[in-house]
Amino acid sequence: MSTIKSSFLVATILMLLLLDFTVDAQSSADVVFPLKRYGNIVPGTDIRKALANAWKDACTSNRSSAIVIPGGIYKVKEGIFKGPCNSPIDFQLGGTLQAPKSLQGDNWITFEHIDRLTLSGEGVFDGQGKAAWKKNDCHKHINCAQLPISLRFNFITNSIVKRITSLDSKNFHINVLGCNNLTFHNVNITAPENSPNTDGIHIGRSNRIAITMSKIATGDDCISLGDGSKQINITNVTCGPGHGISIGSLGRYTNEEPVEGVIVNNCTIINTTNGVRIKTWPASAASGTATNMQFLDIIMVNVSNPILIDQEYCPWNQCNRKIPSKIKISKVSFKNIRGSCATPVAIKLICSRHLPCDEVKVGDIDLTYNGINGPITSQCTNVRPIISGKQNPKICSSPYVVP
């Protein structure tokens, strides 16, 4: 393992130890800003003005500060919490914040340009997404109307999000953009299986992001990594229902940045359409790369596509499959993956004929299928995997069937 990967894993372990030590501790902030200081905070009312005023005071404080939201259900039409701030801030959510049922805007709660933020508490961000899901057709149409993302983290550094819940988002639950050294620990994300485009955590153009000890059940990818995702560590995550843990889709837009240094380790994936996958569009808008990706020690339970590289990702035929992907995939490892699959094709390694996959390692795979549609098998094209250990099913045992 490279020095960079080792250092990243050590740093993540040390941060987990710190999180476990502080998880039930009171805030160590020098100054506390209880929300009740900013007006008559009554459950059922909109508290966005009180939140804005508390944030202003906390952000301009020269001492570490905490904003404390008490128990109860409160409405928030929109919340934008901007830095840079003078000192660390602990945003403690004890109750439930409810989004409007209306479908206006692209965002609901946004944190941006903040260093040393802690978002904590046992509270809930309730996106009230049920009314939106029937109008969310981005899975069918490229030029669809955008719906609000519940939680945005833009350009956040050296920060932690822990013990919060995101419930029933209208669109993505959590979107991470331009962040560096941000950890999500013991986060709970939940929405029904039929809620479209409700990705649990989507990461783009960010470095050193860790997702640990979390549970994600939703209607789309539990975790999705967009372009520019680097040094990402996903550990001890339970995913399902949903579409699994995905890198991509990549190649849809021009000027995409490389993906590199992803570790998915010790996760459990239950009743999902996919397990772990890398997906790129054919007819890519531009060339790109995805490299150094490891999927290790993963349990699959009734997963339709447990292991998948799909360089012909073309949902609802929104692209031209005949033009090969320009995204180069290399240095991928699938190791010690076991459990059950819901279809007979347990492994698909479908790489680009323009840029075949390189250095794909597959070892110690033990997957079972008990259905009636034939023996368990795997398909490959434009790849020569490096095989070791147990093979169940045998790697590349069946010809690839073009959709």
From TrEMBL:
Enzyme active site: H243
Single GO biological process annotation from the record: cell wall organization
Pfam families xrefs: Glyco_hydro_28
Xref: InterPro entries: Glyco_hydro_28 (IPR000743), PbH1 (IPR006626), Pectin_lyas_fold (IPR012334), Pectin_lyase_fold/virulence (IPR011050)
Subcellular location, record wording: Secreted, Cell wall
Signal peptide residue numbers: 1-25
Entry keywords, A to Z: Cell wall, Cell wall biogenesis/degradation, Glycosidase, Hydrolase, Secreted, Signal
Domain of life assignment: Eukaryota
GO MF annotation: an example: polygalacturonase activity
Keyword Signal set for record: yes
Family, similarity comment: Belongs to the glycosyl hydrolase 28 family.
PANTHER family: PTHR31375
Annotated protein name in UniProt: Exopolygalacturonase-like
Organism: Cucurbita maxima
Lineage, broadest ranks: Eukaryota, Viridiplantae, Streptophyta, Embryophyta, Tracheophyta
